[in-house]
């Protein structure tokens, strides 16, 4: 469905001017440039007033940036289900929390080193996703959504009720500082955590990119478009859907482990259905089913969630009349409202915005050109 | 014995609350195939509107006697209007995109509690109620809070009204037929879309009434109340069969009782867990149970 668009774009670009074509050729390398820039961010002391609290390289800013990257990656992994396979799961938080809680528990209770615990934690997340996914995928459509919601809610209740003092209840579980490798503990090492988050993002993008282009990925696309037809072609959608579910669950579990390092503990907020819903908002905000959309949505959402609250307390906002100030003080309201607007008025999310604006802009240019011609 | 009676009546009260939320949810899903994630937000809107009115902001309304009745009516009316606005502004433009309809309600379900907590703060507010409803009465040796009876009475009244409406009026007939086979009703030349708004209004009214009376049950209102009730309402809807009001009533009673007794006699929280696991089990064992059916 998208194959026709680049060809048409290339044709119009060739018509307009040759320099644009050169620009486009070099423009293909922008992800690498962005990656280098992100990698070098801890060495930078550039202040971004308004966007970040301090210079980019400061611990606080790096922490926020790392969180943005983690959630961008997490949303990208979640889109494997929503945008690529067409599965609306309301229980993705469970696998994220499983990775995070299992790693913490194994590390602290069994006394294993962090690397071993992380691998075991990932295994726990994958096993859980495989077990629950194989059950939940027996039903389709909205029933699947509700089964995943029920499983995640059961997990959330278990964590909150704290059976046997294992999960720490509402407090969550903090990692004792001496259990971590010294290069990962303390504020002075935030840069290392940031690089781990960046590595997780690159890993997720690579895995999703590779998986979507693999033969399995083609079947996913088919399932999303028309599941019955995939069956008629002689393929069983169940197995393919399960692969997508487990892969997305594994990516979420890794995200949980990175989040555990980054925030220094496992929190029960990550088990709630609200957490999954926020992932859903990120994906749809950025653009479901696109390569960069979920990443953009995740980064934007996390940044807004953390920074808008601070902005609300600032001088400029507190001077505003109350009908402006009150909604601005609640990032969730703004994000929810933006999400609704996006769903209704701009299907395809933020990343589709340039493509939607381009016809309008080129039409304007043509009109100007036609007017200049005698 | 007194403990059992108290638990039973409290469970029935909780079931009544579930029924008020689930009846509308069930009708909306049965007729329109929209799982309304904003239904909890409608309950919160009703609860806050009632609290706002009873707190002395609405002339004539207050925390005692007729003033409180007026406040509850006001809250219900606000919830009804909110539900109709939701349907007309968000659901209607998305009729040909079912996935987006669900997503839009998810967005509203996130935004509305956030807005409520932006305006009135995230903390729970004490809910004013008439003194006559805050006491207890004796039944078989148990001291039972009066507000449980109010909830049960309201839910029973809503059930009877809904059955009369669905069974005895023309609009109810259209709704019932629409739940059975929407395409056929449209083919017969009846505009089902008008029934969509109607069903949303009914569901919003029931949920808002649930919010107003739920304030009595919990003794306070907070922005997240409706959302936390929503998942149990889903359980009720699935158990009762989508689109079935009588089924929702039976399932609500069952879920409320199971939850209360299991929470008391086994470890705390096990009742909630049991109900949630029940939802998954039901859906997996009876995937067809979720299709529309009006009893």
From TrEMBL, chain A:
Keywords: Cell membrane, Membrane, Transmembrane, Transmembrane helix
Cellular compartment(s): Cell membrane
Pfam families, alphabetized: BPD_transp_2 (PF02653)
Coiled coil regions in record: none
Top-rank taxon, per record: Bacteria
TM segment ranges: 29-48, 60-80, 87-108, 114-137, 193-212, 242-263, 275-293, 332-350
Annotated membrane topology: Multi-pass membrane protein
GO cellular component: plasma membrane
InterPro entries, per the entry: ABC_transp_permease (IPR001851), LivM-like (IPR043428)
Protein name: Amino acid/amide ABC transporter membrane protein 2, HAAT family
Automatic annotation (TrEMBL), chain B:
Spans through the membrane: 6-27, 34-54, 66-90, 102-121, 149-166, 195-218, 230-258, 264-285
Membership in a protein family: Belongs to the binding-protein-dependent transport system permease family. LivHM subfamily.
Gene Ontology molecular-function annotations: transmembrane transporter activity
Keyword tRNA processing: no
Protein name as it appears in the record: Amino acid/amide ABC transporter membrane protein 1, HAAT family
Main subcellular location: membrane
Membrane-topology annotation of the record: Multi-pass membrane protein
CDD domains: TM_PBP1_LivH_like
Domain of life, source organism: Bacteria
PANTHER family: ABC TRANSPORTER ATP-BINDING PROTEIN (PTHR11795:SF442), BRANCHED-CHAIN AMINO ACID TRANSPORT SYSTEM PERMEASE PROTEIN LIVH (PTHR11795)
């Amino acid at each position: 469905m998208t194959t026709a668009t680049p060809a048409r774009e290339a044709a119009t670009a060739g018509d307009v001017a040759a320099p644009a074509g050169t620009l486009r050729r070099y423009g293909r390398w922008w992800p690498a440039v962005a990656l280098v820039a992100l990698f070098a961010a801890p060495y930078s002391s550039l202040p971004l007033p308004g966007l970040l609290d301090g210079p980019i390289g400061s611990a606080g800013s790096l922490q926020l940036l790392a969180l943005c990257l983690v959630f961008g990656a997490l949303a990208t992994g979640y889109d494997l289900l929503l945008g690529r396979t067409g599965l609306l799961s309301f229980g993705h938080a469970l696998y994220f929390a499983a990775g995070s809680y299992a790693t913490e528990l194994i590390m602290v209770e069994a006394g294993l080193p962090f690397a071993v615990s992380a691998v075991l934690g990932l295994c726990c997340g994958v096993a859980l996703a495989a077990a629950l996914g194989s059950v939940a995928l027996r039903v389709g459509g909205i029933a699947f959504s509700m089964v995943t919601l029920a499983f995640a809610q059961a997990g959330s209740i278990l964590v909150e009720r704290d059976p046997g003092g294992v999960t720490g209840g509402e407090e969550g579980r903090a990692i004792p500082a001496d259990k971590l490798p010294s290069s990962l503990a303390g504020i002075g090492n935030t840069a290392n955590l940031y690089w781990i988050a960046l590595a997780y993002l690159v890993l997720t993008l690579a895995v999703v990119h590779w998986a979507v282009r693999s033969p399995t990925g083609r079947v996913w696309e088919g399932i999303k478009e028309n599941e019955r037809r995939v069956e008629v072609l002689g393929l069983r959608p169940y197995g393919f859907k399960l692969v997508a579910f487990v892969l997305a669950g594994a990516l979420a579990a890794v995200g949980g482990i990175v989040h555990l390092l980054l925030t220094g503990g496992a929190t029960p907020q990550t088990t709630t259905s609200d957490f999954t819903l926020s992932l859903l908002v990120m994906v749809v905000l950025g653009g479901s089913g696109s390569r960069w959309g979920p990443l953009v949505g995740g980064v934007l959402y996390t940044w807004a969630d953390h920074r808008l609250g601070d902005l609300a307390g600032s001088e400029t906002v507190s001077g505003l009349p109350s009908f402006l100030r009150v909604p601005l003080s609640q990032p969730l309201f703004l994000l929810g409202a933006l999400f609704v607007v996006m769903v209704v008025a701009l299907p395809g999310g933020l990343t589709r915005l340039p493509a939607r604006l381009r016809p309008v802009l080129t039409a304007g240019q043509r009109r100007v050109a036609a007017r200049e011609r005698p | 014995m007194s403990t059992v009676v108290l638990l039973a009546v409290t469970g029935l009260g909780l079931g009544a609350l579930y029924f008020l939320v689930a009846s509308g949810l069930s009708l909306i899903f049965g007729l329109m195939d929209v799982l309304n994630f904003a239904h909890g937000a409608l309950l919160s809107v009703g609860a806050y509107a009632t609290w706002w009115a009873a707190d002395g902001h609405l002339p004539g309304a207050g925390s005692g006697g007729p003033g409180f009745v007026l406040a509850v009516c006001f809250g219900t009316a606000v919830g009804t209007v909110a539900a109709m606005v939701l349907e007309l502004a968000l659901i209607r433009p998305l009729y040909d995109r079912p996935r987006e309809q669900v997503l839009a309600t998810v967005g509203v379900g996130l935004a509305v509690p956030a807005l409520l907590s932006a305006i009135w703060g995230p903390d729970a507010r004490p809910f004013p109620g008439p003194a006559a409803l805050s006491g207890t009465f004796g039944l078989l040796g148990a001291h039972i809070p009066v507000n449980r009876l109010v909830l049960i009475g309201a839910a029973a009244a809503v059930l009877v009204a809904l059955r009369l409406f669905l069974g005895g009026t023309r609009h109810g007939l259209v709704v019932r037929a629409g739940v059975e086979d929407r395409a056929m009703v449209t083919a017969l030349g009846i505009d089902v879309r008008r029934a969509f708004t109607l069903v949303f209004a009914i569901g919003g009214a029931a949920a808002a009434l649930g919010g107003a009376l739920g304030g009595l049950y919990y003794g306070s209102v907070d922005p997240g109340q409706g959302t936390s009730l929503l998942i149990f309402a889903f359980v009720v809807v699935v158990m009762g069969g989508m689109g079935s009001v009588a089924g929702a009533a039976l399932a609500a009673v069952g879920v409320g009782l199971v939850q209360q007794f299991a929470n008391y006699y086994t470890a705390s929280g096990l009742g909630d867990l049991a109900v949630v696991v029940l939802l998954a089990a039901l859906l997996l064992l009876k995937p067809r149970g979720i299709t529309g059916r009006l009893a």
